[in-house]
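[Discussion] Sanity-checking designs against the backbone

I'm trying to build intuition for which residues belong where. Below is a structure token string of 239 positions. I'd appreciate it if someone posts a full sequence so I can compare it with mine line by line.
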């Protein structure tokens, strides 16, 4: 079965904090996704996925339009997608996805964030093999049986469904992201609390209190970096 997402509360809370920073990161991610192919989400899967996630964070239309218009224009800004892997306090595992136009700036900054907060950088592949790339879609709880039935009727394959924090969570292969959403929308479910392709840990760990505090500082330090887009981890958050 699919791996459960261990940070729904954290994700909900993050929507109300550091809004300007979050919007700036989305603007860059939308621009890069639009540059990958057509600046049309119906013809560009990467763009469609990031736009669906942006909706769950209430990213203003003006920011989205500005990023897509920039991609359509003559901008020659080139960004690389780089992934860093490492270990936090008590052997916790962390994946850091970045978009950067200056690798010489990004790598040292990520390394410093690890080193200053009880962690250390690992080599490529040292952590990612313990995570599964997964499409995660959460809707207000309308009954897990109802959601399961409509997905079956639409012949959409999913890894798992569960009820978590007042949401019905659907876990599926990344390639099924659009199919899941389309099936739900066809059934009249158009509002999504969560809609993204993420990295889920195969096994979560619980840290002691001192380790948790240091881990929180590490995640904050990484997320504050200009070039960091996403941070994934395997730490079970306290209730």
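Best answer:
Here's mine. Compare freely.
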């Amino acid at each position: 079965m699919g791996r459960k997402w261990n940070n729904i509360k954290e994700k909900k809370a993050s929507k109300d904090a550091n809004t300007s920073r979050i919007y700036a990161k989305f603007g860059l991610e939308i621009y890069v996704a639009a540059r990958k192919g057509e600046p049309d989400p119906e013809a560009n899967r990467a763009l469609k996925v990031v736009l669906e996630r942006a909706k769950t964070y209430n990213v203003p239309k003006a920011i989205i339009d500005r990023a897509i218009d920039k991609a359509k224009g003559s901008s020659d800004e080139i960004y690389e997608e780089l992934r860093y892997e490492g270990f936090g306090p008590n052997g916790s595992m962390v994946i850091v996805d970045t978009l950067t136009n200056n690798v010489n700036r990004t790598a040292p900054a990520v390394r410093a964030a690890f080193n200053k907060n009880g962690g250390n950088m690992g080599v490529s592949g040292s952590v990612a093999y313990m995570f599964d790339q997964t499409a995660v879609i959460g809707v207000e709880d309308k009954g897990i049986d109802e959601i399961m039935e409509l997905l079956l009727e639409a012949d959409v394959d999913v890894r798992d469904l569960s009820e978590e924090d007042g949401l019905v969570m659907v876990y599926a292969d990344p390639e099924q992201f659009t199919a899941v959403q389309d099936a739900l929308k066809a059934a009249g479910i158009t509002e999504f609390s969560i809609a993204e392709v993420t990295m889920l840990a195969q096994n979560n760990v619980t840290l002691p209190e001192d380790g948790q505090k240091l881990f929180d500082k590490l995640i904050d330090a990484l997320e504050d970096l200009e070039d960091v887009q996403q941070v994934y981890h395997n730490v079970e958050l306290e209730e």
